[in-house]
Design brief:
The structure is a homodimer. By secondary structure, the first copy, chain A, is α/β, with parallel strands linked by helices. Helix content of chain A is 38%, strand content 20%. In chain A, the strands form four sheets. In chain A, strands 1-2-3-4-5-6-7-8 form an eight-stranded parallel beta barrel, surrounded by eight helices. Chain A has a three-stranded antiparallel beta sheet with strand order 11-12-13. A three-stranded antiparallel beta sheet of chain A has the order 14-15-16. Chains A and B meet through helix 4, helix 8, helix 9, helix 10 and strand 9 of A and helix 4, helix 8, helix 9, helix 10 and strand 9 of B. Strand 11 of chain A pairs antiparallel with strand 11 of chain B.
């Protein structure tokens, strides 16, 4: 039995503070404001914005954020307890925290004796006084205070008494919440569960803050919630230092779709995939295809066994309806796929595969080409061209009869040029292209050759180019697979594939297919 | 309290079967054999190799794998129960399973009534007969049989009786193990724990097989183990369909370093990072920086953290010692760490970097080149050439003054040729090379130009060629990094790097450096 929804449970996002500790993430003030807007729209009640005073950018951020009209989110400013041996009222960082102008503040307090003596270099009693003073002073300034008890679990498992007295001190000084932190991320669910249960009696509600160093940040957070924690701190997509923080995205999925809670509206839940992707894009991080609920592969099926069952009933191999989180089911075409995959994929793409033996012929063609190194999993456009060709329905608007690409260099510079011979409507066309590499030069030549007959090709843009060596260990004879993504101005996007032992030929194959597909579909015209 | 180590607990790897269902993974027979060797070295007791009969490549794989000398791993062939309404002895797939020649086999059995009636389209009783017959027949063929009970948890939570009778039937028919599968990956740890506990009495040991659709594959597997499961099926790096399978890498970390078990030797555990990375490379998957225990960021600390404090007590900041899993602590790049890195690397490679300002100059050069996309982590040979050049100690045995590579094709064939102009000892040499792609042709031309003066170049072989696009999303203007591995007959192996927006130029840079390095080191002579 999973826990039914308690009164007053809260999600707390710290993407903008703890999440941006991740290697490779650097957010501008404008980036941060966009993330706040996305989280507010998603329905996250607490959004931590940064550490004012410690960081000039975060001070600017809070000044700008005060101008935002938030629908429901509470912005939280982050800080720490006062310095040892001074007064809370004289602490410039606590001053800056109040100056952020938020109703809510969160301060980190040391809860581990070793850290108090080694890192703060002060006494255990002074640390307790720092917690009490800081909370009291902030409450007197009219703030609602959340206390993050750092290293709480490590501390509790070593010296239960001191950890508990830090939490109790915070509660008695007027904190609204005490959040227990697994700062080093080394805990497992049963340990989290035990410690949370034994801390429930301090008089204020508890929160949980997990890192993923054992691979259990999510399960640890669920264990804490099962034990009575009423707030979960985490980040979007699990961003954070080292292995990252709790990923709020699957937490939201699990609490809604497994526990049956209703923290967000159905519409907000349906935006989860979009919000996750948008924040990945803002953070400059690759989207994670395997991310639970929202990943591009989360509902992608490859095995022929699964595909034939899915044709009968989609629920047979899916744990939830993908649309509930704004995601979708995808069929993958591979050498492991059978007729059912091809039929479902054709239906998904709107390709006509009726006709005696057409599906079997497509399966055979896909299998032999996949054996040669092609991959149609990502290259829907090449699959569609192949299917139309096998079905006898492909009319090619142009044919390339010859091509050559030359790359040359000396000690200082290099350059590429290409020559393309095309047949378009019975006419022979020869063009020379130039570019920054052979593919660029070939694309230039092909565009020149086509533009008189098909002016829309001017609107095709190659936006992604991926090369993978398939049989490493074969040296310069290795087979290479090239994937090319193309877009037009009307936001069509299509992927084509080319394969061969010659990287230029394989790139050219994918490129020529990209133009062929765009023309067959009539892409490139203004919408 | 975490569970102490039970007698007879086993890791079971299915990277080669369930893992290769992941979008983007396609393993050749040679790839699969390399993975088996790595897993055997790591100390994984069961390695599932594929589905013979269902897949021609897997049949070939088992034929080749029989020739391997494994240290301790048991290879397992995978299959399914016999078809409905037929006989086990007449089932071609069961025949192929036996034909794989392994001592152990694993078959999947339907355990969910809905799947039996909708997908198999047979009766619940016939499904039980299929389980019993198939297991009995395989046992009579001398096999040790593992039964994967598909959708066991969904089934048990709906109709406890049928799920249990499938497991019991398998046990009574002679299966050595029954593995309970969360096939859709929709479970949470408390559910897994309940169901495993209630299935313990069937008479044979239980295994667990989890997928990560709720983000809890690892915690679910730990919950099953805590409840008494004695085998965990998973994949390296969590590869698998949709959100992936249980990642064995953090499972190994958690069981060793948190539970205190000793499944692997300390040396094997110390190879965990290497094995994880090597399998990612073979699978053509990006390494995951945030992967627990083995990720490049797993022990990376932000710059503000004091190195002196880490020296006092690393345990304050890290949940385990990174070296125990073959990983390392990393401080974020700073000028100080840059110098220290270069000095340590130079010492490791035996490069002389004495001389006023040489190390600083190397640091500056490395920084500007890494900013441009170079990576010297893997390319020790290019780093050594760069260091020698900066130190003024590089004497080049040849200089390339001009080069060109032409690739051409028509509807049927493609070919490449290259022209190289070299200066060797004051003499100008021009040669034309041919090959299977521009790099192959350039290599041919360069070899021809050098062989008269340096006959040892005949013994250089390019054995690996890797291309990575650094800035995806830039289309044909993307920056490309090329790594080339070269060997000679005396088993020297060296790696060089080239970078640029032109894939041919970047390849050429790495290739020319490979020859230059070999000649500078005097490689290629018979030992």
């Amino acid at each position: 039995m999973l826990l039914s929804e308690p009164e007053g449970f809260y999600l707390y996002d710290t993407t903008l503070r703890d999440g941006s500790q991740q290697e490779g993430i650097q957010l501008s003030v404008a980036d941060k404001l966009r993330v706040v807007d996305l989280l507010d729209g998603l329905g996250v009640p607490f959004v931590e914005g940064g550490w004012p005073g410690a960081n000039a950018k975060d001070t600017q951020f809070f000044a700008a954020a005060r101008e935002m009209r938030l629908r429901q989110a509470q912005l939280v400013a982050f800080g720490a307890t006062r310095k040892a041996g001074s007064k809370a009222s004289k602490d410039p960082l606590l001053e800056a925290l109040v100056g952020a102008g938020t109703e809510w503040v969160c301060i980190v307090a040391k809860a581990h004796p070793g850290h108090v003596t080694s890192a703060l270099k002060t006494s255990l009693d002074e640390n307790l006084a720092m917690v009490a003073d800081s909370v009291e002073w902030l409450v007197n300034q009219g703030k609602q205070v959340i206390v993050d008890a750092e290293h709480y679990f490590d501390s509790f498992l070593g010296d239960e008494g001191y950890a508990r007295s830090v939490a109790k001190t915070a509660a008695e000084a007027g904190a609204s919440w005490v959040v227990l932190c697994d700062t080093n991320g080394g805990m497992l669910p049963t340990q989290i569960s035990d410690v949370v249960s034994q801390t429930l009696t301090i008089g204020v509600p508890l929160g949980i803050h997990c890192h993923n160093d054992t691979g259990c940040a999510l399960a640890n957070s669920l264990a804490a919630i099962d034990a009575g924690a009423l707030m979960a701190q985490g980040t979007m997509n699990g961003y954070g230092e080292r292995t990252g923080n709790l990923d709020l995205v699957p937490l939201i999925g699990d609490l809604h779709l497994k526990y049956g809670w209703s923290l967000l509206t159905a519409e907000q839940l349906g935006s989860l995939t979009h919000v996750s992707n948008a924040i990945a894009d803002i953070a400059g991080q690759p989207r994670q295809p395997r991310q639970p609920y929202v990943g591009a592969s989360a509902f992608a099926h490859k095995a022929g066994l699964h595909a034939s069952a899915l044709k009968v009933d989609e629920n047979l191999y899916q744990h939830i309806a993908p649309a509930s989180v704004g995601n979708q089911m995808r069929m993958l075409i591979s050498d492991a796929s059978g007729k059912a995959n091809v039929e479902m994929k054709a239906r998904e793409l709107g390709i006509d595969v009726s006709g005696e033996g057409v599906v079997s012929d497509i399966v055979e063609t896909v299998k032999s080409r996949e054996a040669a190194g092609y991959s149609y999993e990502a290259a829907d456009a090449s699959f569609e061209l192949l299917s139309a060709d096998v079905a006898g329905r492909l009319r090619k608007p142009f044919e390339v009869t010859r091509w050559r690409a030359v790359t040359m260099g000396d000690a200082d510079v290099d350059s590429s040029e290409a020559q393309i011979t095309l047949m378009v409507g019975g006419e022979r066309i020869v063009r020379v292209g130039e570019g920054n590499g052979p593919l660029d030069a070939l694309a230039d030549g092909l565009r020149q050759g086509l533009v008189a007959s098909f002016p829309t090709v001017e609107n095709y843009e190659l936006v992604d180019y991926r090369v993978r060596i398939l049989d490493t260990g074969r040296g310069t004879d290795a087979t290479v697979r090239v994937l090319i993504d193309t877009i037009d101005e009307a936001s069509h996007r299509w992927t084509t594939v080319g394969v061969g032992t010659n990287v230029v030929s394989a790139s050219w194959e994918a490129l020529a297919d990209a133009y062929l597909y765009g023309l067959v579909k009539g892409y490139g015209a203004a919408n």
